[in-house]
Amino acid sequence: xxxxxxxxxxxxxxxxxxxxxxxxxxxxxxxxxxxxxxxxxxxxxxxxxxxxxxxxxxxxxxxxxxxxxxxxxxxxxxxxxxxxxxxxxxxxxxxxxxxxxxxxxxxx
Amino acid sequence: xxxxxxxxxxxxxxxxxxxxxxxxxxxxxxxxxxxxxxxxxxxxxxxxxxxxxxxxxxxxxxxxxxxxxxxxxxxxxxxxxxxxxxxxxxxxxxxxxxxxxxxxxxxxxxxxxxxxxxxxxxxxxxxxxxxxxxxxxxxxxxxxxxxxxxxxxxxxxxxxxxxxxxxxxxxxxxxxxxxxxxxxxxxxxxxxxxxxxxxxxxxxxxxxxxxxxxxxxxxxxxxxxxxxxxxxxxxxxxxxxxxxxxxxxxxxxxxxxx
Lengths: 108, 258
Prior knowledge:
The complex is a heterodimer of chains A (108) and B (258).
Chain A: H1 3-9, H2 13-50, H3 60-89, H4 93-100
Chain B: H1 2-37, H2 41-107, H3 111-181, H4 188-209, H5 215-253
């Protein structure tokens, strides 16, 4: 076999690079598909865990749910206004800071 | 004769020229002497300077008072809305529960079952009322705690503002007294240096105290956590009461679920 024929048997550099790029693309697309699927599964699981089926009306289970929802609604309201109380408690800070800069003594 | 007259005129003109030159120089010399005898520039402008400082402090203190008034109004408004929102949620919950009680009663076929539903409804209503009263108390404790923290902070800040204002007034008085005692140019820089140092000290002391301004937010957060813990305990008590009522109803109906 001549030298020229032997050289033509293997992959050229460009061909090798092309194969590497194709493999990288396949791996990348595969990874994206798997992660998306896992993400959807997690969301679905989470939704199924947080959503409780509504009990039939006129049952003690329904009344339990209502009293629980009542409590949760009040907790949400408390949380909102507690945050307001926190904000209100520091609302004079700007005025105090300004008072601390009432003058620039070095200019006198 | 003519020559003599010319010389005489020359002498008179020379003397007059010298007199004019001296005359022009005198006011300048006397002005320099007068400045040396009058106040230093710092002492001259001290009244204006102190006027600016005290006006600025008064203006900013007035703004602080206005900010406090706004804060009080916001707190009052928020608490009013808070109570209204809670009441709206309760009214809605009561309506929904009442509809369920009616449907539950419709399931009762015997007098004993109807009596059991009435007892269950009363037990749940009592438990709801007890929980609401306890939660209201927890909210009141929270709000009172916030009010106390705000009042304490205002008292501390008032004291800091007074110290600041007193320090500035003291610096002004000291500078005024020093200028009155020694208003020469030579005395001015020393008086100014002392005045500036006193003002700086007063200002930085007040500013350093501002580092504690945000601590009240942590106090409010802690009070909210205490309130939430109380409400959680109220919920546990409520759950125990409703569980007992539910079991009694199930027993009356002879079923594991009603």
